[in-house]
Structure formats: C-alpha cells, structure tokens
Amino acid sequence: MPSAEEAADAVDVTALLERGRTLATPVLKKAVDRLAPPMNTVAAYHFGWIDAAGNPADGDGGKAVRPALAVLSAQAAGAAPEVGVPGAVAVELVHNFSLLHDDLMDGDEQRRHRDTVWKVHGPAQAILVGDALFALGNEVLLEIASVDAGRATRRLTTATRALIDGQAQDISYEHRERVSVEECLEMEGNKTGALLACASSIGAVLGGADDVTADALEKYGYHLGLAFQAVDDLLGIWGDPESTGKQTWSDLRQRKKSLPVVAALAAGGPASERLGELLAADAKNNDFDNFSEAEFAARAALIEEAGGRQWTADEARRQHKIALEALDTVQMPATVRAQFAALADFVVVRKR
Amino acid sequence: MPSAEEAADAVDVTALLERGRTLATPVLKKAVDRLAPPMNTVAAYHFGWIDAAGNPADGDGGKAVRPALAVLSAQAAGAAPEVGVPGAVAVELVHNFSLLHDDLMDGDEQRRHRDTVWKVHGPAQAILVGDALFALGNEVLLEIASVDAGRATRRLTTATRALIDGQAQDISYEHRERVSVEECLEMEGNKTGALLACASSIGAVLGGADDVTADALEKYGYHLGLAFQAVDDLLGIWGDPESTGKQTWSDLRQRKKSLPVVAALAAGGPASERLGELLAADAKNNDFDNFSEAEFAARAALIEEAGGRQWTADEARRQHKIALEALDTVQMPATVRAQFAALADFVVVRKR
C-alpha cells in the first residue's frame, strides 16, 4: 500500500483544479448573469470573461484552488462532487467581492495582468458590483432552502466577516511602524485562511457532514491558507514579475508589513536593526515612490540577511504540516484524502 | 365598533416607533460592538452614537419606521414583538450598509445633519464598514439557526439584491437625459420598497408565518416604501431645509430624475416642454453648480406647473391605498392591523 505522501504525489492536481473550474464556472456565469446591467458586464470584465471593450476574452481566472476544494469537500462527506458546486460558487463570489473592494481601497491598478475594475469602470461600479457579488454569494446558497444550506451560509458569513476584519487590520497596519509576527499571522488568517477554510468544508456541509467534520476540514483549509499566504508573501518580494503579474519588489513598493518583513524586524541582530532604520526612514521619505530597483533590492537583501525569507519559507512548511494533520482527524475515502494532500502540496510549491 | 380608519387614528405612532427603537437599539449596539477596531468606532459614528472626536453623542437615529414594522410584523404572526428584534436589527444593518456605500458613490457629504462617514473617516472605511454591516446583518439572523431564520435571511438577501439593483439604476439614470415614470418607479421600488417590504414581513417569518402571509406583508411594505419615496421626492424639492437637513432644492441640485421631475417631463404641454429644454441645457452647463436660488426655484415652478408635484402627491396616496389593501388579505389581530395602518398614515404625512 502506498504511503499517504506517495498517494498525494500520484494525484493529477491539474485535473483536480480543472474539474473544480469546469463544474463551478457555468453556475458562476449563470449567477452573474442575474445582475442588473451594467453590473453584469462589469462583473464579467472582472472575472476575465470579456475585455474592457466588451469583447469575449479568455482571461486568467486564477488557480481555482477554492472551487477544487469545495467540490472535493463534498466527497469527504460521501456526497457527489456536484453537491459542493453551490458552495464553490458562493465562495468564489465572496472572494471576488473582496478583490473588487480591496483593489479600490488599496489603490491597486492591476490584477491578473489587467486593469482593475475601479480603473476601468470607476470606483462606484467597483463598490456596487462588489456588493452585488457578496449578496449573490448568499443567494446562491440560500435558494437551496435546506437546513444544511443555512449552516453553509452561516459558515460563509463568519468567513466573510473574518475577511473584512483582516482587510481592516491590513489597512491599519500600513499606518503603523511596527507589527508583530503574531498580528501579521492573525491578519493573514483572517484575509486568506478564513475563506479557504470555508471552501474546504462548505461542500461537506452541503453534503450533510456534522459540525465536527466541518470544523476539521475548516482547520485544514485555514492552515492551508496561512501556508498559501506565506508563499504569497515570498512571491510578493522575490517573485518573478513574469509569473506573478505584479511589479518587481511589489510588496516592498507598497510598504506591506508582510511576513518576511515582520519576521526580519523581529529577529534582532545587525541586519534586522539596519532594516528597521531604513523602513522607518522610508515611511517619512517623500521620494519613496521614485526609488530605484537597487534601493528595493537592498531592502530585500537585508530582509533575507536578517532571516525573514527563511523564516517565512519554514512557516509555509509548518502551516502545511498542520493542515495535513487536520485531515487525519476526519473519516474520508483515502483517494479524497490524497487529493486534499496533493492540493496542499500544490499550494506550497506554487510559483505564482 | 370603530372603522379601520378610526382605529388607525387612535394609534399612538410615536409610542410605536419608540417601542421598535427601544427593542432594537441595544441589540444593534451589541452587534456593532463585535466589529474589529476601528470599524466599531466608525459604525458608532455613522449611527450617531458618538461624534467625530469619539465622544458620546445623542444623534438623530432617524424615524425608526423599519424596526417598528419588524417587531409589529412578529405580532401579525401571533408571536411576541421581541421575536421580530433580530429581523429589525438585520434590516437596520443592511439599510445602513447601503447608506454608507451610497453616500460615497453619490459623493454626498451630509446625512442627518452630520458629515458622512467617507468625509470623516475616508472612503476606505466607508467601504469596509459598509461591508461589515452587510455581513453582520446576515450573521444576526443566521445565528438563530432555525429554518425560519434561514427563510428570513433568504428574504433579506433578495431585498439586499434589489437595493443594489436600485442603486445601479439610480446611478445609470443620472447619465441619461430621459427616464420614464415606470423606470423611476422600478428604481424606487428597488431602492426603498424592497427593504421596507422585508422589514414588514421579517418578524412574521421569524414568528413562523407561512409564505402567503409573508408575501402579503411584503406587498404592504413594498407599496408603503413607494408611498414613502414619493413623499421623499416631494421633500427633496419642496422640503424645508430646517426639517429635512438637506439643502434647498436638494434633488434639483443633484439633477435627480425623481418622480416629480419624470412625471412633469412625461406630462406634455408648454411647461413640460420648457422644463425639458431647461434640464437638457443644464446637463451641458459647466456653470450649473453656481446656479442661484432663483434658477432652481424657476425649475421647481415649472415642475409644479407641468403637474409633477400633484402627480407625485397623488401617487403617494395611490401607493398608500395599495399598501392598506394588502393588509386586508392577512389574518391578524385588529389592533395589529390598526398599527400597520397608522404607520402607513405616518409615512405619507411626514414632513422630514
């Protein structure tokens, strides 16, 4: 019998992601079609289904980890993958609501290599269509009108509130000189962990899983989210712009207090202290926006020297391990467990 | 036995509004307290509980028609008024989510005689706290974890989607030269009718009322909302700034295609045509923002001459009548019916 690791290695992750996308996208498109004009068009642009001129496009819809998890979680409860589809769609709608609003709040002009909605259609449409996707996410679940759909909606609402709390923390941290590693992890747990937790359990809830099972799957998803975010924080500084679709040193340009930064600042020692002085000076520097590549590279080198890069890579592995351990507490078919494990591996080794 | 009209006249509306406010406000405050800082403070400012400096304030919390309706609707289902409280709170949270976002989208700087949230705390907080209140509204209902709470949340979600559709229509109408009376009524039904419909039925749903009863109460609330909005449109042009807290000719300054305007434009005749020419010229006039009182007064006089003011006043009465007729299809205690009727009367004769 193959070990759990070998079983995970044998999973075709691409096919698993493709299945989630194939099952969820038509239902997602149908839900978005319900929006009154021009919101349906704005949403279709956001999802990459049309370009800014309104012509059909085959945009980068993202990695589709969440839909894959949602349909897989239905199988963890012994249900058909299709049972998880409304959950997958609801989670995608809520995720994209938060992207629309966050991009506007953060002033981000690019997402997935394209201009963000507020840049193309204006701030009012970004707010409005975000609101509409949020409402639609609840609607898609509640129209199932079962007790389990009510439970699923409640969990989605809890995750959505955490998402909003995380964005509030993210904004407030930007104005602070120091953020602790614990605060950063709490923020990332809210911004990324909570919704991946919901994605990992919502199909199971719709499939009738009890709360203990749903909680264990949420735990897997939460820590998977923290692993994902640790990798994202590494890519935000050292990622290849060609792959990430972001600028070089993206998070440094945005003065983000991401994990490598806060870990480096908390580490102590000469590089840590030098980094602290530099970032404090940067915060007051009116010329910051005109910094050269070399100046960002110098800061990235200090973060690495202080151990922030290594700590974050280790943290991704720690969170990955906790996620896998949570799976062991749930009774599920070995093939389903192997697929959950393979998705977790994929998240930690991804390059974009 | 007194007639239905006499019974309504005998109701102490002030006490009815006060009861809704007294039952709902503590629960609303407790819900808002759950928000992570600084969102709890921003929300408390919005609700008028504190001033911009953070000191306790006794702000104008509005007329509180919605909470009064929600607790009354529980009694229509034979339940205690308290049963309607989570519904009242959820509806207030969703209503205030829409105010926060609409004020930002519309660029409105004042509400209830105070600076709006985006003016005081910035656009990001207005977006974020709006999102949080929306999520909280669902949470307050879903944590009841009953089938009826799920039904109530579904109705609230439908109303919220209509609210968002209405705001989308409102924004798109501002860019159009002509809007039909039907389009205007549809927009107002979405923006105002849908949530008052939900407020008028949500307590009954929580109290176990069947869908036929809930639908009839929604119909009452929907048409009450249209009556309310017709009165609001009259106040938006001819209201006393001292009472409304808005500028003179407020809706004309904002070029709103409100009912008196669209009815006047649709009426035909010399005054209607002259008004159409003037408004078309205004739309292209870069000096519009510096118009004198006399110029707005001239437009208001043309709207009145073309019959827009009278048509809107008649429309308020028509909608009021449909609302009362919807009550007749529901079995409920005569005292409760009289109270619904009295609230409807109050909405149509209000001065602010």
Automatic annotation (TrEMBL), chains A, B:
Signal sequence annotation: none
GO molecular function: metal ion binding; prenyltransferase activity
4Fe-4S recorded as keyword: no
Classification via InterPro entries: Isoprenoid_synthase_dom_sf, Polyprenyl_synt, Polyprenyl_synt_CS
Record CDD domains: Trans_IPPS_HT
Keywords, sorted A to Z: Magnesium, Metal-binding, Transferase
Keyword Coiled coil carried by entry: no
Gene3D superfamilies referenced in this protein's UniProt entry, alphabetically: Farnesyl Diphosphate Synthase (1.10.600.10)
Family named by the database record: Belongs to the FPP/GGPP synthase family.
Name under which the protein is recorded: Polyprenyl synthetase family protein
Taxonomic source organism: Streptomyces tabacisoli
Lineage per the UniProt record: Bacteria, Bacillati, Actinomycetota, Actinomycetes, Kitasatosporales
